[in-house]
Design brief:
CATH architecture of the largest domain: 2-Layer Sandwich
CATH topology of the largest domain: Beta-Lactamase
Radius of gyration: 53 Å
Helix content: 55-70%
Strand content: 15-25%
Number of domains: 3
Oligomer: single chain
Largest sheet: 5 strands, antiparallel
Structural class: alpha+beta
Low-confidence stretches: none
Order of helices and strands: HHEEHEEEHHHEHEEHEEHHEEH
Strand order of the largest sheet: 2-1-5-4-3
Mean pLDDT: 79
């Protein structure tokens, strides 16, 4: 019935219908009970009245005194009195025109025929009520008994409308009470329904965003409840976190593959450039040593040599090799980097927080690790806002050297993070875009990992270098 209606409306409407149906059922039961009570009261009062009348009617019946019996019954008002003799014929009635003497009931119509059948079948000497929905009257039949023998029957007939005023009064009161109860309960039902359904609506809205919107844009907060809805919300939140983790891992794999491809391409190009570059530099050196040079030629040679050296430096930067001939990394190596970075931080008025947790040498070559520390620290200082904060921590954790560098400033988008470690990609004037590239190549050559996270104006780099592989 409600298959196409949102639960936000379906549940409150269902509760409202349940309240209405309950009120209708209760009202009907109350009216029916009232009808039963009226019916029983009518029966009891009829039996009491009939018992009094039968005491006089016994004498009239014994003496066959119709007039005395008629005098007893004529002040009946709206009721119909019929006295049936032992042969079930009308002995006397308070309405002789309608119920002629000595006539049989069944000859007066279907209503009285059914009454006669009921009297014939009732062998007990107790009063009983005869009532059918299709009849115009209901009848109370009271046996007239003398010396324990039924000598006649007194039939008291009432018009069915006798109940109507009472039932209308009761129905109006029940209806008014039901309306008050409904007016009070339906708003409560809507409130309860909405309170129950809203968590499901929010969960449904969040689930509909999966696949069509970025996972970081899906805002859903599980309810602090232990029922089925709360557990469903917690499961959904756990699923979102797992999808985010999977997405991050996939992104890292894609970035790693792309950077590895770029590295292979850059290394190949660098090697191809180095060979003719070395030849050109040797030719210039030979020409300057043996050939006659005029002022203009000397000036040209200087420009060529300077350009070729710049090309050589750029190509050498692309050929990163984490040489391990240097001594093991010590706490003093980390502090040396701090001294080198301190001056640049002071120029920008930065607060430099340095947390060096090394308490002895580690089995990592100091030179490339210092290069990683230097590149990340200078990058953080350059990216930090004026009078901002730069934080660096170095600590051995579970067989890894963990390096954390963070700075406040501009939030880096996910798209920019994916390109940070590519060569010649930079976000500041005068940068070469090789610092993070070199850092990434060193970390990967040691079999480590590097992660970037930027949110709410804080960017953090985290490096893991395995100690075992470097031993």
């Amino acid at each position: 019935m409600f298959g196409r209606i949102s639960l936000r409306y379906e549940v409150p409407i269902s509760l409202s219908l349940a309240i209405l149906l309950t009120s209708l059922v209760i009202g009907s039961v109350l009216i029916w009970r009232s009808y039963e009570e009226l019916r029983n009261d009518l029966f009891r009062s009829s039996v009491e009245l009939g018992t009094v009348l039968t005491r006089t009617l016994v004498t009239a019946l014994k003496h066959d005194d119709v007039w005395q019996a008629y005098q007893t019954l004529r002040s009946a008002g709206f009721k119909s009195y019929i006295v049936l003799d032992d042969q079930q014929r009308i002995f006397v009635s308070n309405q002789p025109k309608q119920f002629p003497m000595l006539s049989e009931l069944r000859t007066l119509g279907p209503e009285f025929d059914a009454l006669q059948v009921d009297i014939d079948n009732h062998v007990s000497l107790t009063p009983f009520l005869h009532e059918r929905l299709e009849d115009e009257r209901l009848y109370v039949v009271i046996p007239i008994i003398d010396d324990g023998i039924r000598i006649a029957n007194l039939v008291i007939g009432y018009p069915r409308t006798i109940y109507r005023p009472h039932l209308m009064n009761i129905a109006s009161r029940v209806g008014l009470t039901s309306l008050i109860v409904i007016a009070f309960l339906i708003p409560i039902g809507w409130w309860v329904g909405n309170r129950t359904v809203n968590p499901l609506v929010q969960l449904s809205r969040a689930m509909s965003q999966v696949g069509s919107e970025p996972l970081d844009d899906i805002k859903y907060k599980p309810l602090g409840r232990d029922d089925e809805i709360g557990k469903l919300g917690q499961s959904f939140q756990a699923m979102i976190e797992e999808l985010k983790e999977k997405q991050n891992l996939e992104g890292q794999v894609i970035v790693s593959e792309r950077l590895a491809a770029i590295g292979r391409l850059a290394a190949g190009i660098a090697h191809e450039i180095n060979n003719p570059l070395g030849g050109m530099m040797n030719a210039i050196s030979t020409h300057r040593r043996f050939g006659p040079l005029g002022p203009e030629t000397e000036k040209t040679m200087i420009l060529l040599e300077r350009g070729l050296k710049q090309i050589h430096e750029t190509v050498s930067a692309l050929l990163v090799e984490a040489r391990q001939e240097s001594h093991d990394l010590t706490p003093e190596d980390v502090e040396d980097v701090r001294l080198l970075v301190q001056s640049d931080a002071q120029k920008k008025g930065l607060r430099l927080v340095w947390d060096n947790k090394l308490d002895g040498p580690l089995s990592l070559p100091s030179t490339p690790v210092r290069q990683v520390l230097m590149n990340l620290s200078l990058n953080a200082v350059q990216a930090a806002a004026e009078a901002g904060n730069v934080t660096l921590s170095v600590a051995p954790v579970d067989g890894l050297l963990e390096i954390r560098v963070s700075n406040d400033g501009i939030t880096v988008s996910n798209e920019e993070i994916g390109k940070l470690f590519e060569p010649f990609v930079h976000h500041r004037p005068g940068g070469t875009g090789l610092g993070l590239w070199i850092t990434y190549q060193i970390v990967r050559q040691f079999g480590g990992d590097i992660f970037v996270h930027s949110e709410h104006g804080t960017t953090s780099f985290m490096v893991h270098l395995p100690l075992e592989s470097a031993a």
